[in-house]
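In the current project phase, the collection of sequences with tokenised folds has grown. A representative record is quoted in full directly below:
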Amino acid sequence: ALDRSATSNSNSTDPTTADRFQQSCPGLIDTFRHKHPQQRRYSFFNHQGASRLDRIYITEADSSFVAAAHI
């Protein structure tokens, strides 16, 4: 996953809470991922790795109004 970086002991195939949330809300998109589909950025760091905790979701219909998304 682009939004997670974990130590080698973790199982990266498990779906994250954010992934499950987005799947349960069809039609919503992550504004940062929409603007930066391949970029890795993290907002939380600890001894086990890093992840993005700051996600802002909007409807796909409103995505044209997003001028920028930064972490």
Observations:
- The radius of gyration is 13 Å.
